[in-house]
Amino acid sequence: MTGDVSGRLAVVSGAGRGIGRHLALGLARAGMDVALLGRRPAGLADTARECARFGVRTRTCPVDVRQPAAVRAVVDEVADRLGGIDLVVNNAGIADHDEKPPWEVDPDRWWDVLETNLRGSFNLCRAVLPAMIEAGAGRIVNINSNVATKRDIRYSAYGTSKAALLALSDTLAGPLRPHGVSIFDISPGMVLTDMSARMTACLERNQWVSADLVVGAVIAVARGELDPLSGRYLHVGVDDLAELAARARAGLPDGIRTLRLVPHGVDDPLA
Ligand SMILES: NC(=O)c1ccc[n+]([C@@H]2O[C@H](COP(=O)([O-])OP(=O)(O)OC[C@H]3O[C@@H](n4cnc5c(N)ncnc54)[C@H](OP(=O)(O)O)[C@@H]3O)[C@@H](O)[C@H]2O)c1
């Protein structure tokens, strides 16, 4: 699938509000049918109503992405009702907005961030990948964050979860390539949402990135324009994605924009 995406099917998690809602609306505007996942039915129903204005099919799927069996059931139901899934956006996520240092934090709160951001994304990948592999096509976007690569002690759970997500995509990208399936990590920049508005790191912030940038990037993924960048971490606030994709088509060095150990020299045995 490249080019026109109308009539194709996207699954967006966390679609009831925030960036997920922007993504669902943008994909619907581009003509994609949308399956909307999230915990709260009211938000999903509202997003579905707005998406339906673009004449696409919608389905609301209340689900907690931390629950593998429930995610599996929802994916099966979506495939039964709407057909094969072309694009998945793992957007559902949480941050502990006033996270304590790891030596003080409530361990269950810390783990809940991992369960949602990492396990939730894994659960959706696990549920959709067999059919994508069988179809020989499919694309997955993990919504990531700068905190994955820039250490911030205020967000140890969030940063760990997003770094692990980078590792997951990196692990999957190579083996999925021969099956025609691509996977990307895309950072949206700082977008004003319920999550960012409450984070202590953002309390003084008065400049925000428009969600249109991440919407445009995910549509470019859906159109296949970024396939040469599968497995790489992209940041919509700073990257020229078309230029990066052109460079990748000409041959991007192995490991660029992936999570790697920095060796202390060429003779480092771990290099
Ligand atoms: N905002 C930013 O500046 C920013 C920057 C970098 C990365 N991100 C990433 O962007 C993504 C979206 O963030 P946001 O800012 O839009 O946050 P948000 O406004 O707080 O929305 C979070 C979404 O995730 C859903 N969600 C949370 N836990 C879930 C669970 N267990 N099961 C199903 N859905 C769940 C929520 O659904 P319910 O409403 O149903 O609970 C909600 O729709 C996250 O992955 C975040 O890490 C955001």
UniProtKB/TrEMBL annotation:
One of its GO terms (cellular component) is membrane. Keywords: Oxidoreductase. It comes from the Bacteria. Residues 8-189 form the Ketoreductase domain. GO terms for molecular function: oxidoreductase activity. Belongs to the short-chain dehydrogenases/reductases (SDR) family. This is Short-chain dehydrogenase. It comes from Micromonospora carbonacea.
